Amino acid sequence: MEPPLPTPSKLRALPAVVSPLVLLAGCAVQPLTMPPADITAYVVLGEQGVAIARVITAAATCPALTVDGQPLAMTVRALPATLPQRPTASKPEDSKPSVFPQLTCEATLPAGAVAASVQGQALPLPRAAPQRIAILGDSGCRMKKKDNEFQECNDLQRFPFATVAAAAAAWKPDLVVHVGDYHYRENACPEGNAGCAGSPWGYGWDTWVADLFAPAAPLLKAAPWVVVRGNHESCERAGQGWWRLLDPRPLLPGRDCNAKADDSNGDYSDPYAVPLGGDAQLLVIDTAATTWKGFKPGTTGYEKYRDTYRKLDALSQHTTWNIGLTHHPILGVGAEIKPNGDYDWHKGDLGLQQSFGSLNPRLLPDQVQTMLSGHVHLWQQLSFSSGHPSQFVAGFSGSAEDTVPLPAVLPPQAMPAPGVTVEHFSSWIDGFGFMGLERSGPGDWNVTVFDRHGQIKNRCKISGRRSVCDVAQVK
Ligand SMILES: [Fe+2]
Questions:
Q1: Which of 12, 213, 216, 292 has the largest count of CB atoms under 10 Å?
Q2: For 311-351, how does the pLDDT look when each residue is reduced to its tens digit (9 = 90+)?
Q3: 52, part of any domain
Q4: How far is the CA of 64 from the centre of ligand 1 (A)?
Q5: How far apart are the CA of 375 and the centre of ligand 1, in A?
Q6: Of 375, 432, 442, whose CA–CA distance to 398 is shortest?
Q7: From CA 388, how far away is CA 386, in angstroms rounded?
Q8: Count of domains observed in the chain
C-alpha cells in the first residue's frame, strides 16, 4: 500500500542519534547520514536460531570478536565495492551505482556464549527461550519520485524511527523482529525540499545508515534481530544491501542481486525456523517478490512460493506453536478512499493466497497459530472463527502512515481472503510505534501495542489461533 504523506510541518527536532561530525559542523538539523560509531556491529539470527555477528568497518581487515574471554576471528562476507548501476524500480536517470565503501565481516557465535564483544562494544546474545519480543516494521523514510512522495526525513516528528527504536530498546526485549521494508530512500530529494534536503539516496551504504543503522542503533545493541525481507529489499530495489548486510545466510554469487539476469535467484530464498523454546518457533518467510496483483499458474513467482509453502509446511511440523513472519500480510486488510468516497479495500496478498492456496485452501499449515506482517502502514489484528491463524500487522515504525480510518467491524466485502470469517478486528491508523509479544503460556502470548514513546495504546491476548484485543479502534 502506498500511503498518502502527512501534511508538512514546520516543526523540527534534533535526531536522537547525532554523529560527532554533525555536531562539529554546528548544524542543529541534519539528516542521519553518518554511522553512529567507527564500526557498526549487530547480531542476526539465522536457520535454527544460529547467532551471526556482523561488523561493518572502514578498516582493511575484519576485527576479532571476544567471546567468553577468547578471541574469535571474523571472516569477510563482502569486500568494499561500487556495484555498477543495474536496472531498478526507478528510471535509469533516477538510479545510480550502489556504493558500499566498507567491509562486511561476520562470525557465527557459539551456542551458549555468555558474553561477546568487538572493539569494546558488547554484542547482544540470544536467549534460549525469549520472553519479550519487540516487533516493528516499515521503518525507512520514503523518498520516491514516481509517486512524488517525499517524507520529511529531517524531522523527527515526521520520520520518528529513531524515537520508536529507542522506545523499543528501553522496553528491554530479548529479541527483535523486523517484519521488513527497512530501506525507502530510493530517489534524490527534489531541489528546494527542506524536509529531505541533504539525504542520501539510492541503494548504497549511506542510505542504509540513514534509514536503519543510525536510527536503530540502540535497538541493534539491545537484542539480536530476526530480519524479515520486504518488497523494498527485492533485487530491483535495496536487494544488494539486503544480501550484504542483513540476510543471515551466505552471500552467494548470483544471489546477490547485482545482475538483473540473476533476479529469479536473488529475489527468493527458503523459509527457515528460529526456535523460541517452549514448543514454539518463528518461521521466517521471504516474500520480497510477491504481488497483490496475483500470479498466473506456472509463472516464476507462483512456483517459487508453492515451493516456499511446501518447505514451510515441513518446518511447521517440528513444533506445536508456529509464528509465521511474512512481510506481506496474507490475511490482512487495508483501505483507500476512492474519489466518490467509497472504500477501496486492499485484501490479503493475492500472490501468496494463490500460490499457498493452490496447495492448501486454508492458506497456511495447521500448526501456524499467528502471522506477523508489515507492508500496510498501520497496526492491525485479526482473529478468525474460520480456523485461520490470527494475523497481526506491525508496519508502523517510521514510514509515512496510512490515514484512511478502518471500521470497528469489517464489512463482508472486506474479508481478507475467500473462505475466512473475521471474529475480532482491531486497528490503529496514523500512529507510529512497535508491538510487544510476551510469553504467557504454551501457545499463549500477551500483545502490547506501544506508541513511539513507549506508551501503551492497546493490549491483546493470543491463545492458539485465536486472539482478541481490548480496543477495536485505537485513537
Ligand atoms: Fe512493503
A1: 216
A2: 999 999 999 999 999 999 999 999 999 999 999 999 999 99
A3: no
A4: 36
A5: 4
A6: 432
A7: 6
A8: 1
CA of 328 to the centre of ligand 1 (A): 7
Answer whether residue 158 is part of any domain. Answer: yes
Residue 428 is inside which H or E element, if any? strand 422-428
Pairing of strands 98-100, 121-122: unpaired
Structural domain including 343 reads: 128-469
What is the whole-number distance in angstroms between the Cα of residue 100 and the centre of ligand 1? Answer: 24
Q: Please, which residues bridge with residue 67 across strands?
A: 70, 116
Question: How close is the Cα of 427 to the center of ligand 1, in Å?
Answer: 18
Mean pLDDT, the chain, whole residue set: 92
What CATH number corresponds to the domain at position 160?
3.60.21.10
Distance of CA 70 from the midpoint of ligand 1 (Å): 41
255 half-sphere exposure, CB direction, 13 A CA radius: 10
Residue 179 Cα to ligand 1 midpoint, Å, equals: 9
Examine residue 246 and state whether it is found in any structural domain, yes or no. Answer: yes
Residue 121: what are its φ and ψ, rounded to 5°? -100, 120
Centre of ligand 1 from the C-alpha of residue 235, in Å: 14
Which cell numbers in the block locate residue 396?
508502523
- Mean pLDDT, rounded, for 16-45: 53
The verdict on residue 222 lying in a domain is yes
Question: Which grid coordinates are listed for 308?
Answer: 516456499
pLDDT in tens, 251-283: 999 999 999 999 999 999 999 999 999 999 999
Distance 71 CA to ligand 1 centre (A): 40
What does DSSP assign to residue 319?
S
Question: Which residue matches cell numbers 534534533?
Answer: 14
**Has this prediction a pTM greater than 0.85?**
yes
Identify whether the C-beta of residue 181 lies closer than 8 Å to the C-beta of residue 231. yes
Whole-angstrom distance, CA of residue 94 vs CA of residue 112:
47
- Three-state secondary structure call for residue 247: coil
